[in-house]
Design a protein that fits this description.
This protein has helices at about 20-30, 45-50, 75-90, 100-105, 105-115, 125-135, 170-175, 180, 205-210, 215-230, 250-260, 280-285, 300-305, 315-325, 345-355, 375-385, 405-415, 435-445, 450-465; strands at about 5-10, 35-40, 55-60, 95-100, 115-120, 145-150, 165, 185-190, 190-195, 215, 235-240, 265-270, 290-295, 330-335, 360-365, 370, 400, 425. With about 475 residues, it is an alpha/beta fold.
């Protein structure tokens, strides 16, 4: 049996470590026909290459940078040095790239990392088909989404059709040591793929498709139940771009979890304000959701329209009122500086924070909007002269409303944040070790069973008051 080594290049642990879901989905699929190992970041890659002796190496590229305009961290050079260099030194296996970051920048990363092949879009079936083609000396470039260093202009997988989504069981803990993720991470579960919305900056439709493909709610809950049986009391995160789109799917999942009486701690990375209803949040509470992230991006009617959000300020206020009524701990995510942003629209966002974000909840603030190729924002930035024709966007490039400018944006946000302990700029959302220790001590002393971000906000308030 031939051997496959899959390498997770995402070594970032801020604000919390993220288990390699996509890589383990691929591992689960190809383990039917190959001997598969997963290298989960860190050191020891050269030694594993030598001892395992893989016939093929797949490298997952999840993140390009940390999307922080004030002081961006660029990961590609580190990936080249820490992962590609030892793989190339091994030299006995084709290097195959994949992952969300690669799917956005296939041409640039094929060139920069010097890979043999890449997979644009979903990797489970494409990777298995590619390996079979290489085994049998068939043309790998006939496979949708597969590219090499010479066919980059065709680097696009076919658009997935709407319908049912069938996924191999991820079983992350079967391929990597899950212990490092127990403390601050969550076990990721995907309930669907695709996004039908039109936010000007977003890459989800490009990566996952523009139509929803839904997993059967029973299968999603089967996976959550299996995770609980294998790993015990771990937090489980639904990692869909928006958990509550389309209407009815999230409700069905929550209803099934409650019906089975599962005692599980849940969170989700995204709820769309347009779909927040009293019924949904009530069901989420019954199912065991202890935290949600809500991503309105702005509290300004004008900016919401410019970002092409599918809700207005009134609908956003209604969503916030419902979440508060159910005492659902919520992290709110805002992106300031986008199209149409002015000093007045920034005040409108902070007016929303003051009136609708609960004191114990966090408003996470990003300044500047990361520009990605193929998005409406990239076209606008080109028209406004913010980026030049033909310029690569691989290195972090940010859009800031020309009517405001970067300096005025940063000054305005700093002024607003100074009087609001629960409003935290993106550059400050990685807690220092001392803050984490204080938060853990506080949780132990007070017997707190709240989301960690709320404990960290307690420490932050204490520090700001002491200044």
């Amino acid at each position: 049996m031939k051997k496959v080594l899959l390498v997770n290049s995402n070594a970032e642990t801020a604000p919390y470590p993220v288990p390699p879901l996509g890589l383990c989905l691929v591992a689960g699929r190809v383990s039917r026909d190959y001997d598969v190992r997963v290298h989960d970041g860190g050191g020891g890659l050269s030694e594993l290459l030598a001892s395992f002796g893989p016939d093929y190496v797949g490298l997952g590229v999840r993140n390009i940078d940390d999307v922080v305009m004030a002081a961006p961290t660029y990961y590609v050079d580190e990936i080249a040095e820490a992962f590609v260099r030892p793989i190339r030194s091994y030299g006995r296996a084709p290097l195959i790239l994949g992952g969300a970051g690669f799917s956005v920048f296939p041409a640039e990363l094929m060139t920069r990392l010097g890979a043999d092949y890449g997979i644009v879009g979903e990797g489970e079936e494409a990777f298995a088909t590619l390996l079979a083609a290489l085994d049998s000396c068939e043309d790998p470039l006939a496979i949708p989404g597969v590219v090499d260093g010479e066919g980059l202009t065709a680097a696009r997988a076919s658009e997935p059709e709407a319908g049912r989504l069938a996924l191999p069981e991820s079983r992350i803990d079967a391929f990597v040591d899950y212990a490092p993720y127990r403390g601050r991470g969550s076990y990721p579960v995907q309930a669907k793929r695709g996004c039908a919305h039109h936010c000007v900056y977003c890459t989800y439709p490009r990566i996952e498709g523009k139509s929803y493909r839904l997993r059967d709610p029973g299968e999603v809950v089967d996976e959550i139940e299996a995770i609980r049986k294998r790993l015990g009391d771990v937090s489980v995160e639904i990692v869909d771009s928006t958990f509550n789109d389309p209407a009815g799917h999230a409700e069905a999942i929550c209803t099934e979890i409650a019906r089975r009486g599962l005692r599980v701690r849940l969170r989700t990375m995204g709820v769309n304000p347009a779909g927040v209803t009293d019924e949904l949040v009530s069901l989420m509470r019954r199912a065991g959701f202890a935290q949600v992230d809500c991503t309105p991006d702005s509290g300004s009617p004008r900016v919401l329209a410019a970002l092409r959000k599918n809700f207005d300020r009134a609908r956003l206020e209604r969503a916030a009122t419902i979440l508060a009524a159910h005492e659902m701990p919520t992290m709110w995510f805002f992106i300031l500086g986008g199209p149409g942003e002015t000093r007045d629209t920034i005040r409108e966002t902070f007016d929303f924070v003051d009136r609708f974000v609960q004191p114990g909840d966090m408003a996470h603030l990003t300044t500047g909007v990361r520009v990605y190729p193929g998005t409406a924002l990239a076209a606008r930035a080109l028209d406004e002269g913010i980026i030049a024709p033909g310029r690569s966007l691989l290195r972090p490039t940010f859009y800031v409303s020309p009517t405001l400018g970067r300096e005025a944006l940063e000054t305005a946000v700093a002024e607003e944040v100074a009087s609001r302990p629960n409003s935290v700029p993106a550059a400050e959302t990685t807690p220092d070790p001392g803050m984490i220790r204080e938060a853990l001590q506080l949780r132990a002393e007070l017997g707190l069973d709240e989301p960690m971000f709320r404990s960290l906000l307690r420490v932050r308030r204490k520090r700001l008051t002491a200044r």
